[in-house]
Design goal:
The protein has a single domain, classed as Spore Coat Polysaccharide Biosynthesis Protein SpsA, Chain A (Alpha-Beta Complex), CATH 3.90.550. The protein is α/β, with parallel strands linked by helices. The chain has a 7-stranded mixed sheet. It has a two-stranded antiparallel ribbon with strand order 2-3. Strands 7-13 form a two-stranded antiparallel sheet. The protein contains 8 helices and 13 strands. The termini are far apart.
Length: 228
């Protein structure tokens, strides 16, 4: 049973415009509470017990709000230079245990976490069916085993409907790959590059299909939809 979850909440969320001028995106409110509070609620409902929140941009907003809650720890990413380097900060927290990792702007039902946790693999990537995964990452698989992942494929080029859905199950071996990440063309150390290296080494990466409600709260219209 997986007990630990890591939440990456270091970024500003520039696509939100002025709404994140003073607070990080995971602290934007949905139905009167921070998005991050809803994520934690759902993780707890799925049986997760210990949490590490990776903070960065206006991180004090997060630590002051959640600092008194039991089972939550914090680590600051400085500089904020990619999801791969952010995930690497969780190494001591994870120890020798597998863990769930999610971005701090992904909302889904607790059962989706539980479904992913039940899959036995070197890593599990949650996926959601979309018409065209050009805005995210196209995930190709055969009988549930991932064969390749293509980040931001050109529109209309994908032959898979699976889009990476923003949360994962990892074994500690992922940290070996995170330590070796190259700097991306965007000047960041990116988590998807670790997945690509794991696939290249023949590791067993599996999909977990999200069947219920799911949303990547990346733009103002996504936030508005969650509050409607």
């Amino acid at each position: 049973m997986i007990r630990k979850a890591v939440i990456l909440a270091a970024g500003r969320g520039t696509r939100m415009g002025n709404m994140t001028q003073e607070i990080p995106k995971p602290m934007l409110e949905i139905r009167g509470r921070p998005m991050l509070a809803h994520i934690l609620d759902n993780l707890r409902t799925a049986g997760l017990l210990e949490f590490l929140i990776v903070t960065g941009y206006h991180g004090e907003t997060i630590t002051s709000y959640f600092g008194e809650e039991p089972g939550i720890g914090f680590v600051s990413q400085n500089p904020v230079n990619g999801t791969g380097s952010a995930a690497l900060l969780a190494e001591s927290f994870a120890g020798n245990e597998p863990f769930l990792l999610t971005y701090g702007d992904i909302l889904c039902e607790p059962v989706e976490y539980s479904r992913a946790i039940a899959i036995q693999a070197d890593a599990v990537v949650a996926v959601k069916a979309v018409d065209d995964p050009w805005q995210g990452a196209a995930v190709y698989e055969t009988q549930g085993r991932i064969t390749r992942i293509i980040e931001k494929p050109p529109k209309g080029t994908s032959t898979t409907r699976w889009n990476s859905a923003g949360f994962y199950i990892f074994r500690p071996l992922v940290f070996d790959y995170l330590r070796r990440l190259p700097l991306s063309p965007r000047g960041e150390y990116e988590l998807p590059s670790a997945l690509e290296a794991m696939l290249a080494d023949g590791l067993d990466l599996r999909i977990s299909v999200i069947e219920g409600a799911w949303r990547d709260v990346g733009r103002p219209e996504d936030l508005a939809a969650m509050n409607s």
